[in-house]
Amino acid sequence: MFEDFGNAVAGALAYSAVGIALMVLGFFIVDWLTPGKLGELIWSERNRNAALLLASNTLGVGLIVVGAIWASEGNLAEGIVSTLVFGVIGLVAMAVAFIVLDLLTPGKLGDIVCSDETQPAVWVNSAMHLALGGVIAMALS
Question: Could you give phi then psi for residue 75, rounded to 5 degrees?
């Protein structure tokens, strides 16, 4: 019983560490794609567009981590490697989706994200992040 408990604790710690690292990487990617400092936009200027975009990125990464845990079927090493690989694929896909959407629509999406007024384009991009997280999570199974 305690061995299973110890393994579960080790797994939770390992997946949490990898998940946090991927979420931090996601933060830097969103920061790179948008003008200005993302942290200031969200926490100082209380910009809802930037917060929505980052939140959807974080949730997309979370879906991928959950998918990797599910697909690993208890094999911790395989699950951690899958989480890292598919997490990075997901973040790259989200960045590419941002860039493609920016090219296909009027205006600059990065500037729209920084706008003080709520922008529907940010909702569309956020939906893409969540959808990509789900697609990649399902690709793991």
Answer: -85, 100
